[in-house]
Amino acid sequence: MATRSIYLLKQIRLQYYEFCVWAVVFSLPSHSPLSVSSLYSLLLAPSPSFPLFQLFAVVGFRLGSYEDGEFTVVSPEHCAHIPERVKQLGQAFQEFFATSPLAPYRASDESGYWRQVAVRCYTTGESMAVVMIHPQSLSQEELGQEKGRLVDFFTTGPGSANPPNSLYLHPFSRKTKDHTVDMEHLLGEKNVHEEVLGMKFRISPDAFFQTNTPATELLYRQVRDLCRHGNRSSESSPSLSSDVASSRPAIYDICCGTGTIGLYLSKVLCARRCVGVEMNQQAVEDARANAQLNGIEDVEFVCGRAEDVLQGQLEEEEESGGPGEVIGVVDPPRAGLHPRVVQCIRRNPHIQKLIYVSCNPEGHQTLGNFVDLCRRPSLRVKGTPFTPVVAVPVDLFPHTPHCELVVLFQRTTTASTHTQSSAPPPGDESLVTESSAPPPGDESLVTESSAPPPG
């Protein structure tokens, strides 16, 4: 019954996504020639009970919110989407914390020490655990003793039968600004690996990586197909269309993380060049290592803010004047793209196609990105606008109400920028594959789950 309720909730949220796309179209000037060709129905994960691979817990999951002042921690034992390996490690850490002289951390008054454990498990069988601790007034000697107890627990103690492949300790305080500066490797390998679509990727403790590998493969195939022609993913689709093969594209992977999307697209689209931009230095190092792991050349990963890096890279692209199209792919965090990044994309005429992968489609910043990509030129917004062509929701997070939304934006032709809008009024069912869009302001459609938001 609960699974059915979650499915229905996702269908309702799809209606809201549809409304979001319409909101983009109808917030624009009346003469802007924008219309939505199609909103596809939900692409389900390969298995409705497939697990998420990341656990944030002390001995279980936190429910509720710090903001509301009401939260608790519950066991993940009965969670269908959590793999047994994660549950086993959770139980092991529970045994360790029960024997520790240090109390669990309490956010309400910032007392205690052990805050949370982040556990990652992958289809390769490898696992990583990052234990977060608030040192409070512990001396270095006292902290060292507790680190020694943790290592002993997983080497010679009760946890030695099933230790994580990689174990880190992460000291934390609210005054800490760089959350990676004090991360200390305690046990096992420094990195773990995952395989996605026949490619191998290195993952560091602070680098972002999608939590559900089979669903991630579905997502990446969809991005691939949108890069080609905007056709929906299918197993029967051709391996490479002739027009793409004859004119190798350049790929700009913005917010690239460990480089997974850019490297995959570079391989399957035979890209002449791939540039990834990411703020996390460790993720950039992982991306460079992943390029070597997979034997992919003609790729460059740059650490920095996208709004600072992207313009210079696009100027190099313009100077090179290479044949073929330039495709932008953005996969930003929940906060969306910085407005200056959107302006940079708008101003560069070489980017004719943009694929936007959003983990927070209903977010105000995301909708703001959509509007700024598509609105007509003005003193603030320069460059030829884009048109939203296809929107595809992907069920990346089974047993939760969250969905990824992949939107294909195509650069509007100059000739059409002065024509009357062809977008029909809301409710025209010729453009809708699901039920019609809900009315603006229906807050019941955007209720957030108590589960922690996907990465």
Structural commentary:
The chain has 455 residues and is an alpha/beta fold. It folds into two domains: 2-46 and 198-445, Rossmann fold; 54-190, OB fold (Dihydrolipoamide Acetyltransferase, E2P) (Beta Barrel), CATH 2.40.50. It is built from ten helices and 17 strands. Helix 8 runs parallel beside helix 9 and helix 9 (339-347) runs parallel beside helix 10. It is globular.
Identify the strand order in the major beta sheet: 1-16-17-15-14-11-12-13
**Average pLDDT over all residues:** 77
Count of runs of 4 or more consecutive helical residues: 10
Shape type: globular
| CATH class group of the largest domain | Alpha Beta
According to CATH, what is the topology of the largest domain?
A: Rossmann fold
- According to CATH, the homologous superfamily of the largest domain is Vaccinia Virus protein VP39
Which regions are unreliable across 5 or more consecutive residues at pLDDT < 50?
Answer: 30-37, 52-58, 230-246, 415-455
